[in-house]
Amino acid sequence: MKIKKIAIAVAFIVGMFAGVNVFLSSWADADNINTREHIEPAYELNVFGQTYGSAMYAITVDDEPDLILVVGDSGIEGYVYKTDLDEDMPDSPEEAIQKQEELVKEGVFSRTIPVYNKNGITKIDTFTIDMGYEDVEFTSHLGEIMSGEDYVDDLLNGDNVDLP
Known about the structure:
Elements: H1 2-31, E1 44-45, E2 51-53, E3 67-71, E4 77-81, H2 82-85, H3 93-105, E5 110-116, E6 123-130, H4 137-145, H5 149-156
Parallel strand pairs: 2-3
Antiparallel strand pairs: 1-2, 3-4, 5-6
């Protein structure tokens, strides 16, 4: 009986050590996940040497293919040029605000780009990109809010900016 109790105690202790070891090794792997080597997604090439496919696994913009898989406005699957999808980035927050203000004044709340088949030449549909600020109370006051430099200064300093 005494030997049985000792055997159970030893098995319990060994099991505890094994469990803790497995837990700690998996925890260490989780901590190192961001230090692993970055592997770029593999894309197919069309006849013109352009990459095409889904950007789903792209970690950075640089990892995206030349032609990005989308579902067009008519429900047709095709590709949009990465350069069409990504607009030129403004050089400063002030320039971004100015551009957005101009678009709102012009009533531009979306833009449409062509969808191509994988050859990147044959247009098969369109893809509409919502600018994200239509139907927001903020839109009607955007010009008033951005009319002064105080708004930009407050925003850049991380201060709260109240809508009128």
